């Protein structure tokens, strides 16, 4: 099998490339323009037989020589700090980038998997969130460049499936964490770990009572590969239902790192969702999937990776 992974040099995409080569693929083409990804994420793969890196912006087009059996479309800024810095690039990759990835799948008769997001539910009024919930998104707020781009990408994916018969599926990914998150990407897990390791103030937004449900990256990738091997359209939620408040998370990370950092309150960003937890009954029924890594174990592995990186670089860069 030969797969094309857009955004393959990013946090999740690099793990996807690696797992594909370890399991079902002889060849993986990683397409990335490095807007938020890093060459270091794919350093272990570069030069390895069957792996090819194409430095390219999927907004400009996506042409691949030779056969293509699978297209996994992961290209998009994903951290709020990143997409607020790049709102137009985020809208373009969700719209034109997704169209190009779907065209590639259509031309080759390939299976297509879209990396969508729990942000499709916005600030949810239904809890936990099943796939049947249509969401509560502010279409003109600061986060809309990401949320609406992904909702459009979902609509486009379904239209290609319905009208052109593309074997396309959608996964809605909930907050995922693990090694290779950029320490300065602004998301809560890398921020809190970096701050804890540096004995700097640990920032919790608002009163910290808002919740997220955190999934370790290896489990998430397992779900993505199962979706690749299926032929259903979804959307299917992939996430760990273990829900925590952000204040609890800060205390948890402080304990696991043995840090003496103070936990400080900073302003809550506009339209920050109050709570989020996936209903994963569909993933269990259709894909036989559920997360297996306890959040604490995932946090320990991530902390270890950040500590190693800090040892190497001397400092963990901020946003
Ligand atoms: P990331 O920023 O680490 O990775 C995204 C990758 O896409 C980067 O390598 C970036 O350079 C690349 N990219 C962006 N625009 C591109 C373009 N126009 N052309 C080529 N490459 C481009 O983010 P991530 O956390 O790994 O997220 C990967 C995907 O999963 C995204 O589509 C994101 O929306 C989705 N997702 C992630 C999470 C999460 O918790 N990490 C949650 C929901 C959805
Ligand atoms: N957050 C926080 N401290 C930080 C960064 C983020 O408390 O240093 C909060 C953020 O406001 C949100 C939650 O943590 O309520 C998750 O934020 P993240 O950016 O990781 O993901 P998303 O908002 O996209 O779920």
From TrEMBL:
Coiled-coil region(s): none
Boundaries of every NAD-dependent epimerase/dehydratase domain copy: 4-230
Enzyme class: lyase
SUPFAM superfamilies: NAD(P)-binding Rossmann-fold domains (SSF51735)
Named cofactor requirement(s): NAD(+)
GO CC list: cytoplasm
Domain of life: Bacteria
GO molecular function: dTDP-glucose 4,6-dehydratase activity; NAD+ binding; UDP-glucuronate decarboxylase activity
Membrane topology: Single-pass type II membrane protein
Keywords associated with the record: Decarboxylase, Glycoprotein, Golgi apparatus, Lyase, Membrane, NAD, Signal-anchor, Transmembrane, Transmembrane helix
Chief site of localization: Golgi
UniProt keyword Transmembrane present: yes
GO biological process: D-xylose metabolic process
Subcellular localization, as worded in the UniProt entry: Golgi apparatus membrane; Golgi apparatus, Golgi stack membrane
UniProt-recorded name of the protein: dTDP-glucose 4,6-dehydratase
Organism: Streptomyces jeddahensis
């Amino acid at each position: 099998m030969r797969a094309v992974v857009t955004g393959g040099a990013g946090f999740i995409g690099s793990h996807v490339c690696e797992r594909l080569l370890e399991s079902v693929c002889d060849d993986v083409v990683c397409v990335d323009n490095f807007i938020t990804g890093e060459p270091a994420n794919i350093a272990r793969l570069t030069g390895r037989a069957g792996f090819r890196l194409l430095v390219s912006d999927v907004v400009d087009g996506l042409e691949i020589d030779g056969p293509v059996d699978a297209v996994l479309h992961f290209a998009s800024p994903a951290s709020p700090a990143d997409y607020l810095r790049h709102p137009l690039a985020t809208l373009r990759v969700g719209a034109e980038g997704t169209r190009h990835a779907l065209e590639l799948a259509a031309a080759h008769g390939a299976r297509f998997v879209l990396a969508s997001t729990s942000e499709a539910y916005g600030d949810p009024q239904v809890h936990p969130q099943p796939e049947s919930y249509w969401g509560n998104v502010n279409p003109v707020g600061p986060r809309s460049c990401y949320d609406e781009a992904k909702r459009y990408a979902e609509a486009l994916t379904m239209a290609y499936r319905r009208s052109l018969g593309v074997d396309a599926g959608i996964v809605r990914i909930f907050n995922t964490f693990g090694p290779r998150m950029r320490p300065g990407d602004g998301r809560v897990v890398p921020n809190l770990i970096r701050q804890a390791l540096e004995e700097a103030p640990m920032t919790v937004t608002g009163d910290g009572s808002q919740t997220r449900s955190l999934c370790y990256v290896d489990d998430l990738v397992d779900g993505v590969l199962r979706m690749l091997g299926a032929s259903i359209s979804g959307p299917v939620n992939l996430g760990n239902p273990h829900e925590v408040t952000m204040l609890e998370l800060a205390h948890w990370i402080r304990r696991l790192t043995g840090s003496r950092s103070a936990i400080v309150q900073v302003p809550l960003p506009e339209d920050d969702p109050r709570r989020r937890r996936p209903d994963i009954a569909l993933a269990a029924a259709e894909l036989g999937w559920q997360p297996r890594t306890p959040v604490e174990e995932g946090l320990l592995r991530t902390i270890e990776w950040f500590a190693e990186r800090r040892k190497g670089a001397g400092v963990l860069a901020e946003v």
